[in-house]
Design brief:
143 residues; alpha+beta; Lipocalin; ten-stranded antiparallel sheet; 10 strands; globular
Length: 143
């Protein structure tokens, strides 16, 4: 019985590693639009005439988070390492949206306080340092 040579083993390893990488990307929180469902235990509100509040983590480079808070758009850097997730200072537009300003403030606080993440039942949860959910997102319609 002849065993495969070293080059054949390398090719097989590369194919298997590529398959694992593809699977990991499919399960990743990055590269998907996440629509806000709940923030601080309160259901998300939709501002009249605005896109639904959402979050998108662009794996870049550079790593960039972007989305809509309620009626204002935002962008921030982020750091993702395993289940650890933190955001840099967010920049946002400054339009007034009467029914969404409380949500915008809560969303900004959630980004500032996020220290981790998990996906449970198909929903993304931003977690504080103790592992409690700050905000919950559903996979948005633009996936």
């Amino acid at each position: 019985m002849k065993l495969p040579g070293f080059p054949a083993v390398l090719v097989l390893a590369a194919i298997l590693a590529g398959g694992c990488e593809t699977m990991a990307r499919m399960d990743s929180v990055e590269g998907r639009h996440w629509q806000l469902v709940e923030i601080g235990g309160v259901p998300a509100v939709a501002s009249a005439g605005a896109e639904p509040a959402h979050l998108f983590l662009d794996p870049g480079p550079p790593l960039r988070a972007a989305g809509v808070l309620a009626c204002n758009r935002f962008a921030a850097s982020y750091m993702l390492l395993g289940n650890s997730l933190t955001f840099g200072p967010a920049m946002s537009t400054r339009m007034a949206c009467p029914e969404g300003m409380a949500q915008e403030a809560a969303f900004t606080r959630a980004l500032e306080g996020a220290r981790g993440w998990r996906v449970a039942d198909g929903r993304l949860e931003l977690l504080d340092a103790e592992g409690a959910p700050l905000a919950i997102f559903d996979s948005g319609p633009r996936d």
